[in-house]
Amino acid sequence: MLYLISSSSSRANLLQNARLAFKQIKFDFDENFDKNIPASLYVQRVVLEKERQFCEKMSLDFKDKTLLFADSIVCVKEQILTKARNKEEAYKMLDLQSNQSVNILSAFILKSPQKQIFSLSKTTLFFKEFEPKDVENYVENDFYKGKAGAISCESFHKKYIINRIGNLDTALGLDTLTLKAYL
């Protein structure tokens, strides 16, 4: 049995869609890190810290289990975008993304008694210009909440994607193709 150590409903949906048996363990992590490092290092640091925090508190209960830790960030022109804390931040993030290319970096650690796998994946999305009324509806109805970079590929952003390089699951929060290769 795979244990998803995450509160993310998006990651849980990805595992369900990939037909993987799992149990979700919700765990609050401290994700406040210095963003003045390259995005690829930042997302790796976050996922490693999630593993450390969980194992420090829960290691005995899960020592013989297969655990999955994951995180995703959005990067626009070398600027790291994590989850928007409020509407003002969401508007700023969406403004940066409109008519731009956006990199989504997703890292995971798959940890079991037999192995530990670390994976880093990247998907680049190319967006056309966002319509202001759509942006306002998205932000004012709080649809951005809980989304890295305020990105929702399955709703708001979907109609604005003009090209994609990489795996859509990575953009949604977890590279399930790579994960399945190691299960």
UniProtKB/TrEMBL annotation:
<dbReference type="GO" id="GO:0009117">
    <property type="term" value="P:nucleotide metabolic process"/>
</dbReference>
<keyword id="KW-0378">Hydrolase</keyword>
<protein>
    <submittedName>
        <fullName>Septum formation protein Maf</fullName>
    </submittedName>
</protein>
<keyword id="KW-0546">Nucleotide metabolism</keyword>
<dbReference type="InterPro" id="IPR003697">
    <property type="entry name" value="Maf-like"/>
</dbReference>
<dbReference type="Pfam" id="PF02545">
    <property type="entry name" value="Maf"/>
</dbReference>
<dbReference type="InterPro" id="IPR029001">
    <property type="entry name" value="ITPase-like_fam"/>
</dbReference>
<dbReference type="GO" id="GO:0047429">
    <property type="term" value="F:nucleoside triphosphate diphosphatase activity"/>
</dbReference>
